[in-house]
Amino acid sequence: CYDLGVLYDDGIxxxxxxxxxxxxxxxxxxxxxxxxxxxxxxxLAEGTEVPAxxxxxxxxxxxxxxxxxxxxxLNLGLMYRHGDGVGExxxxxxxxxxxxxxxxxISxxxxxxxxxxxxxxxxxxxxxxxxxxxxxxxxxxxxGCYNLALMYRHGTGVVADQExxxxxxRxxxxxxDMxxxxxxxxxxxxxxxxxxxxxxxxxxxxxxxxRGDMFGCSNLGIxx
Length: 224
Hints:
Layout: H1 2-10, H2 18-30, H3 34-46, H4 54-66, H5 70-82, H6 90-102, H7 106-118, H8 126-138, H9 142-154, H10 162-174, H11 178-190, H12 198-210, H13 214-223
């Protein structure tokens, strides 16, 4: 039922039919398939192809999370973090991000790191944040690599290490995180941890700007 729901959801081999997908996901979810609970929750949370139903989405994400589907914990955490369909509850978001991270959902580790970094819903602990960013980065979260680069750049939660920051900015940039490209441009522009290279900086700012990073556009504008 879950697999058939995916086919109707994505229009693979059949005419795309979101309503049919919803019905099949519900059958699968009722039968204990937690991925179906998550997918159904996602459709109802987004409300782009079927009518939005945030309270039902919350219940389905909770069911998925309790059933071991880490992505359910992550998405429910996002809803509590931003007050989407539920009352904003940062402490609840922290708990859910922790469950997601422990369940192998790397974005949960990154989001949890940010909460510790900023002291949102939990006591500020930048050492803990750095550990979580490292875990996220190791799991190929480029946002985790970028935020860890910032910590090494400024010496928050870790001992400042400009060469390490440069390596992390580069990893994030090469992995598609345009904030990483902007950060790498900044260190080249100012000769921090690398030899100063304004042409390289302009190239990196342009790359970031072209793909939607407004700081890259701003920094490139300053150079011009």
